[in-house]
Amino acid sequence: MSFPITRFRRLRASDGIRGLVRENRIHSADLIYPLFATYGQGIKRPVGAMPGVYNFSIDMLLEEIKEVVELGIPAVILFGVPEIKDASGSGAYAEEGIVQQAVRAIKRSYPDLLVVTDVCLCEYTDHGHCGIIQNGRILNDPTLELLARTAVSHARAGADIVAPSDMMDGRVAAIRRSLDDSGYCHIPIMAYSAKYASAYYGPFREAAGSAPQFGDRKTYQMDPANALEAIRETALDIEEGADIVMVKPALAYMDIIRRVKDEFPYPLAAYNVSGEYSMVKAAAEKGWIDEKKIVLETLTGLKRAGADIIITYHAKDAARWLKEG
């Protein structure tokens, strides 16, 4: 039907009507908040490129998590910032590694909070890559054993979900097999299935101290020009045992989020990454944008694209704004 029978403005006439017919809504329950744990006591070290984001010692991490829980955010994802790095990233799978200690502390104090752990080696290797290196090459298959050991150590510490982010071929199968063999068949895997070799990760590398010391990650992370490859990667992760799949980054990859969601009837996470966060923060500090409106619009866009779960550094602010209405 056409005008004047059809008048779209009838359903835009007031806040109440707009809310009644709204197709997508953001809830605090959709959000996962990333946190960086480090050794020491009383440490709350700001990340220069990410205003409002810190490296926390475990005692300070628990204070931060108290606020997360009060805001109704159901989950955090943990990244480790170790004191010592080596060629094999042994801190990633050490029983007293920083993430393992942080998980145990969180679950003691907040047993109902979901703790997701990032499973990767890059924060722990002295070369900054996500795998074992030999003659300047990142080796795929030898890396799988270390990733699987890391995932099992996280599960043993009490992690609720493990999230491999390395993009090595076959890592979901290796992790699933090791978890099952170790008695953790109940632990879900949230796979970074379509993770691109993106320029949007820059601020994270400051936060986690994980910049590669040579080369880049283009031999294992995906080419930003590719979309069909994301479908193939996601299909493989599901075949290997992924329970939740992820697209990372989010803002420039909403088309990928939509395509993955249309293709696979699986829970889908979108990672609203550090560069996306930092751009908003920088523009807001300049007074060029309304931070609250931009953040909520972005998160709504990710939901509209098909994300069921959103990992975002904006989680606390967004939850607070949503509470305020």
UniProtKB/TrEMBL annotation:
Residues involved in Mg(2+) binding: 233
Keyword Lyase: yes
Keyword Cytoplasm recorded: no
Catalysis: reaction(s): 2 5-aminolevulinate = porphobilinogen + 2 H2O + H(+)
EC number(s) stated in the UniProt entry for this protein: 4.2.1.24
Residues given in the record as Zn(2+) binding sites: 120, 122, 130
General function of this protein: Catalyzes an early step in the biosynthesis of tetrapyrroles. Binds two molecules of 5-aminolevulinate per subunit, each at a distinct site, and catalyzes their condensation to form porphobilinogen.
Annotated active site: 195 (schiff-base intermediate with substrate), 248 (schiff-base intermediate with substrate)
Record organism: Desulfofarcimen acetoxidans (strain ATCC 49208 / DSM 771 / KCTC 5769 / VKM B-1644 / 5575)
Pathway field: Porphyrin-containing compound metabolism; protoporphyrin-IX biosynthesis; coproporphyrinogen-III from 5-aminolevulinate: step 1/4
UniProt: 5-aminolevulinate 2 binding residues: 274, 313
PANTHER family, sorted: DELTA-AMINOLEVULINIC ACID DEHYDRATASE
Protein name per UniProt: Delta-aminolevulinic acid dehydratase
Matching Pfam families: ALAD
Keyword annotations: Heme biosynthesis, Lyase, Magnesium, Metal-binding, Porphyrin biosynthesis, Zinc
Subunit structure: Homooctamer.
GO biological process: protoporphyrinogen IX biosynthetic process
Cofactor(s) for this UniProt protein: Zn(2+)
GO cellular component terms listed in the entry, alphabetical order: cytosol
InterPro entries reported in the protein's UniProt record: ALAD, ALAD_AS, Aldolase_TIM
Enzyme class label: lyase
Homology family: Belongs to the ALAD family.
Cited CDD domains: ALAD_PBGS
GO molecular function terms noted in the UniProt entry: porphobilinogen synthase activity; zinc ion binding
